[in-house]
Fold:
Amino acid sequence: MALEYKTVQFTNDADGIARRQIYLNQMSSHGWKVVSESIEQGHMSGGQACCLASICLPLGFLAQRTASVVNITLARETSTSEPAVDNEPWATYASKFSSMSPEEKALEWVKLTDAQRQHLFRRFNIKYP
Structure:
């Protein structure tokens, strides 16, 4: 199995944290897991700090800060083999295929790719109907 990674960012405020939680709930239902989470602190807005400091040095400290950002890296295992027909697990598809009538098998066999046919033969010993 190979790992697939995805990195996302959210602002570190109430709205960003709420969006982060919704996003993580959705992604966990698709098999993603959090592997890394870090907070990048905000910094002073340089242009504002410079302009205010040119008027009076202590005013430079009144410049606004950029919002801090939460960086999250997600990972999930991916299969390198070809997925089963219509994303149905191979064992389920093979048992369904075995229980079909010869006419249904012939129609279904035509829909399969060569790789899917070979996989059915190698793993489940299912041959052309």
Notes: Residues 2-78 form one domain. The helical segments are 14-28, 46-55, 90-98, 102-111, 114-124. The chain has two domains: 2-78, 85-124.
